[in-house]
């Protein structure tokens, strides 16, 4: 028995008039009855659809145009074309979605109205307007929103539109703001500029090296294979079930499902071996399968960053932790030193948060010095935004910790006068005495030590993360210098001298017993 015809769902007034001669069907199945004269006048795209021989017909012979947009965005768009009250929008997101359709179907009048509505959000939400304009490729609105950002703090939380625009777009916004808007006429937020793309060190030489070098871990065929692992691009790897099961619980489950019976005696023919289909390219799957075998091997660490991340993704997908750890400690560590920003972006984008965090120490200085590598164009702006916020918070913390040392002095734990000491007994009786101005007490701290404090603060504030170890205070050396400068009283000097001797004794004994170093002056006699 044939299924009864489905009754269509019609839109509300004025798009439910049976006198209309065209029906627009939204993606969610809502029918909008409209007049072809209004539609053709408003949009050249719809006008061409109406005369197309491929245009569908309804049961009563009317033209039907099926579009990919939902009814909740199509309704306000059509109201902008009809002689009815203009729609109201609940949020900036709604404006952007409807404006995107207006631009797609070349609805000129509707686009002008919606652009004006978009600009109305510029005062309160300039960053979101800028991101929306980038998504819609509206240069005037994007520049206007960027100008509105001058002098404003970038919010810690990224706006929702940052999931859709690229980190490259965001980089160009920061470039625009740093330049005070003085950029070339050809500048566009969504188009990379050649001068921003960092030049690889000896790029041609590096590419030739990578092209001619062996895989990071080359798969080695071995006898007595009892299973074939087939990659997504059709490369076969003759492997051994027991090895794969020991290396990965995920592969163990897949093999158990594929081969419920014990393996048969190996005949040497590949045609009789079960085939395990795996969702990974052969260039990544081969090295990961090879890493399952307990064999000593010398890793080739010069590998393309993208290929490396594909291997790491494969190892994670199939829970081959040994391979993932080996790649992370070796090749990724090396790549993050050579290309720290690209390594961070790829690791963060692919969900390797720990590896992304490990690259932060290699990202020294302002982020703009790394330019805009190609990976930024494929990475959501939320990732670059988090990195920028991390940098800003890092600088703010550094400034807070070192600013007092540079502009003033470290906080003293000693009371400024005896009356302020909480340990002194005070008279609980209420007495009224005239206010006496307490004379300023000279700073009892040694000028040499205060100067050293400020020098260290200056160094910490301006140093790169890779050089911060240079400013670690050597307390043992500092103690000896303070004794030489006679900044302590006699009693303190004797006790501090004992502490210094204790430290020297430990170092001398360690050198003699464990380092086998007998050349120290203390051991010479």
Uncertain stretches: 202-212, 408-431, 518-525
CATH domain topology of the domain at 198-328: Potassium Channel Kv1.1, Chain A
Biggest beta sheet attributes? 5 strands, mixed
- Helical/strand content category: mainly alpha
Shape: flat
Overall pLDDT level: 83
Terminal Cα separation, in Å? 110 Å
Give the helix proportion (percent range): 40-55%
Task: Note the run of SSEs as H and E.
Answer: EEEHHEEHHHHHHHEEHHEHHHHHHHHH
CATH class of the domain at 198-328: Alpha Beta
The number of helical segments is 20
* β-strand amount: 5-15%
- How are the strands of the biggest sheet laid out side by side? 1-3-2-5-4
The CATH homology group name of the domain at 198-328 = Potassium Channel Kv1.1, Chain A
Account of the protein in words:
The chain is mostly helical. Among the domains are: 120 residues, Potassium Channel Kv1.1, Chain A, CATH 3.30.710.10; 131 residues, Potassium Channel Kv1.1, Chain A (2-Layer Sandwich), CATH 3.30.710.10; 40 residues, no CATH class. It contains 20 helices and eight strands. A five-stranded mixed sheet has the order 1-3-2-5-4. A hairpin with a 5-residue loop joins strand 4 and strand 5. The protein is flat. The C terminus is likely disordered.
Which short descriptors sum up this protein?
Potassium Channel Kv1.1, Chain A, 20 helices, BTB domain-containing protein, 5-stranded mixed β-sheet, mainly alpha, BTB/POZ_dom, 525 residues, 3-stranded mixed β-sheet, SKP1/BTB/POZ_sf
């Amino acid at each position: 028995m044939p299924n009864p015809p489905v009754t269509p769902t019609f839109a509300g007034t004025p798009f439910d008039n049976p006198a209309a001669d065209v029906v627009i069907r939204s993606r969610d199945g809502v029918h909008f009855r409209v007049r072809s004269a209004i539609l053709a006048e408003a949009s050249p795209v719809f006008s061409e659809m109406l005369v197309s021989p491929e245009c569908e017909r309804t049961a009563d012979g009317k033209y039907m145009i099926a579009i990919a947009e939902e009814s909740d965005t199509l309704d306000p768009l059509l109201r902008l074309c009809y002689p009815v009250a203009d729609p109201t929008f609940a949020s900036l997101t709604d404006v952007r979605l409807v404006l995107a359709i207006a631009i797609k179907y070349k609805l000129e009048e509707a686009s002008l109205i919606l652009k004006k509505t978009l600009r109305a959000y510029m005062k309160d939400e300039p960053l979101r307007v800028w991101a929306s304009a980038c998504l819609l490729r509206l240069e005037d609105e994007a520049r206007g929103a960027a100008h509105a950002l001058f002098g404003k703090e970038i919010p810690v939380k990224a706006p929702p539109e940052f999931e859709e625009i690229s980190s490259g777009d965001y980089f160009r916004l920061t470039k625009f703001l740093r330049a005070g808007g003085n950029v070339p006429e050809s500048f566009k937020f969504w188009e990379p500029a050649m001068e921003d793309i960092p030049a690889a060190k000896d790029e041609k030489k590096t590419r030739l090296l990578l092209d001619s070098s062996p895989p990071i871990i080359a798969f080695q065929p071995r006898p007595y294979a009892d299973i074939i692992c087939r990659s997504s691009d059709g490369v076969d790897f003759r492997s051994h079930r027991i090895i794969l099961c020991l290396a990965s619980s995920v592969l163990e489950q897949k093999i158990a499902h594929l081969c419920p019976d014990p393996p048969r005696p190996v005949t040497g023919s590949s045609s009789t071996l079960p085939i395990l289909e795996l969702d990974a390219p052969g260039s990544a799957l081969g090295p990961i399968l090879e890493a399952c075998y307990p064999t000593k091997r010398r890793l080739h660490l010069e590998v393309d960053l993208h290929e490396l991340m594909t291997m790491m993704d494969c190892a994670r997908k199939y829970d081959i932790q040994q391979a993932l750890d080996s790649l992370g400690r070796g090749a990724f560590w090396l790549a993050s030193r050579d290309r720290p920003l690209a390594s961070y972006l790829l690791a963060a984008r692919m969900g390797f948060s720990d590896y992304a965090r490990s690259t932060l120490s290699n990202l020294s200085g302002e982020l703009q010095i790394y330019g805009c590598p190609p990976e930024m164009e494929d990475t959501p702006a939320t990732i670059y935004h988090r990195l920028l916020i991390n940098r800003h918070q890092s600088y703010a913390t550094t400034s807070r910790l070192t600013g007092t040392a540079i502009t003033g002095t470290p906080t003293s734990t000693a009371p400024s006068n005896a009356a302020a000491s909480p340990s002194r007994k005070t008279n609980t009786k209420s007495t009224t005495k005239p206010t006496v101005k307490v004379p300023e007490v000279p700073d009892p701290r040694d000028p040499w030590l205060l100067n050293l404090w400020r020098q260290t603060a200056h160094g910490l504030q301006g140093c790169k993360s890779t050089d911060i170890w240079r400013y670690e205070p050597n307390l043992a050396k500092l103690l000896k210098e303070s004794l030489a400068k006679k900044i302590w009283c006699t009693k303190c000097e004797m006790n501090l001298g004992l502490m210094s001797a204790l430290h020297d004794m430990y170092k001398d004994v360690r050198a003699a017993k464990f380092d086998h170093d007998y050349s120290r002056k203390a051991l010479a006699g």
